[in-house]
Amino acid sequence: MFELVAALALATDAKPALHPRRAAQLECVAALALVGNDQARKQKGAGRFPKMAGRDQVFAGAVAKRIMAETGRSDAEVRALYKTEVERLQNGAMNSTDPSAYVDGRVKPCLPWLKAVDPKAGPDGVVKGLDDGIPP
């Protein structure tokens, strides 16, 4: 009986899975942050992408807010998801036979979202199209 109660308690505490579009956006948050970090450190090759100039942070904030609202995750839980994603991308690049191609393959699909950031809107800026394809 105790095992059933424990299983039910775990089931009720479980957070809903991310919508596939949010999962893709989370990967983009991690990929764009890695590029932004490389640009800030003036790393070789980071200039092949558009300047992040804080747009990556606006995008990250918008995605985090949506994930928290849609899944009930806390800020700390979303940060943990983000950290896991960054580590996954870093490991993927390190284990790739062509790290630049690996990074390009992760960053390029994110560029439309980066371009959709309204940098004048401040840290809680608007990201056009962020919710397209996601049911309310």
Features of this protein?
single chain, 136 residues, mainly alpha, 6 helices, disordered N terminus
Can you offer a commentary on this structure?
With 136 residues, the protein is mostly helical. It is 62% helix and 0% strand. The chain is built from six helices and no strands. It has helices spanning 2-13, 20-40, 55-71, 75-95, 99-107, 111-115. Helix 2 (20-40) packs across helix 4 (75-95) and helix 4 (75-95) runs antiparallel to helix 5. The model is unreliable at 1-12 (pLDDT under 50).
Based on CA inertia axes, which overall geometry fits? globular
Overall pLDDT score: 83
Determine the structural class based on helices, strands and strand pairing.
mainly alpha
Please work out how many helical segments DSSP would assign: 6
Q: How many strands appear in the DSSP assignment?
A: 0
Instruction: Estimate the strand proportion.
Output: under 5%
